[in-house]
Amino acid sequence: MNKNFNTILFDLDGTLVDSQKGIFNALSYMVNERNLEKPSQEILRTFIGPPLPDSLRVHFHMKDEEIDLAMKSYRSYYNEHGVHEFTVYQDIELVLETLLRNGKTLGVATSKPEEPAKRIIEHAGLSSYFATITGATFDESRSSKTQVIATALERLHHPDKTQILMIGDREHDMIGAQANQIQAIGVTYGYGKKEEFLPFSPYAIIDSPKQLLTYV
Q1: In 63-187, which ranges are E strands?
Q2: How far is CA 187 from CA 193, 204, 205, 208, in A?
Q3: Ranges assigned E (strand) in 125-203
Q4: What is d(CA 8, CA 167) in angstroms, rounded to the nearest whole number?
Q5: Phi-psi region of 125 (alpha: psi -120 to 50; beta: other; left: phi over 0)
Q6: Which residues in 91-108 are b (16+ Cβ under 10 Å) and which e?
Q7: How many C-beta atoms surround the C-beta of residue 211 within 10 A?
Q8: Radius of gyration (Cα) for the chain, nearest Å?
Q9: What does the mean pLDDT of the chain come to?
Q10: How far apart are CA 117 and CA 193, in angstroms?
Q11: DSSP code of residue 116
Q12: Maximal C-alpha separation, the chain
């Protein structure tokens, strides 16, 4: 195993925190306010991870103007209530403490807009562990995981790509890592499944946060 990885990027939802409650509540608020047909629980789970505009296009077949209105409804709930409706996964803080103590540089790279991402991490008491918290922009000028990871690496002054790991629970994390020519580890304790990662030949697939310490 490569213990030489010195920069570790984490996804947020489904990797550091279980944010399902806040996201589901915000989606329900949006669906009711916009008079949309409520998706099944299975479909709702697919909204966690990818950029929200992409999910709205896929599942509600929305055009840009409709997406703007739906996003306003979603954010009106999420920014006030949803950012507080989450739990930190068990052992995450222990893992972050251990990695930092071992000299690793840690960052967050999330498709969630950067402002609420920072609020969640601050509310969770995890801000001090991260050298950067990089998220999407509200205007979608930075929305894909590929763009988010690239920006995070810029903020970290372009570390050696052979020494970087992206940790995430959805295929978008694997896609973004490959596009930036870095290794990735998929986690199954979040919202993705092992089968989602296999086509991308990740460095590893782990079932709990503590397993990460085996690889770094």
Answers
A1: 87-88, 105-113, 132-136, 164-168, 183-187
A2: 8, 9, 6, 7
A3: 132-136, 164-168, 183-187
A4: 7
A5: left
A6: bbbebbeebbeeebbbbb
A7: 17
A8: 17
A9: 94
A10: 23
A11: H
A12: 52
Indicate the pTM of the whole model: 0.89
Amino acid at 57: R
Query: How many residues does the structure list for the chain?
Result: 216
Give the pLDDT confidence of 2-37 residue by residue, as tens digits. 568 999 999 999 999 999 999 999 999 999 999 999
71-127 residue pLDDT tens: 999 999 999 999 999 999 999 999 999 999 999 999 999 999 999 999 999 999 999
Determine which helix (DSSP H) or strand (DSSP E) holds 7, and give its type and residue range: strand 7-10
Q: In whole angstroms, give the CA distance from residue 34 to residue 79.
A: 18
**Token digits of residue 52:** 């929200």
Q: Return d(Cα 184, Cα 176) in angstroms, integer.
A: 9
Region for 203 from its dihedrals, namely left if φ exceeds 0, alpha if ψ lies in -120 to 50, beta otherwise: alpha
The tokens of 130 are what?
């991260």
Q: Which domains does the chain have, with CATH numbers?
A: 7-18+87-214 (3.40.50.1000), 20-84 (1.10.150.240)
Number of H helices, E strands in the chain: 9, 8
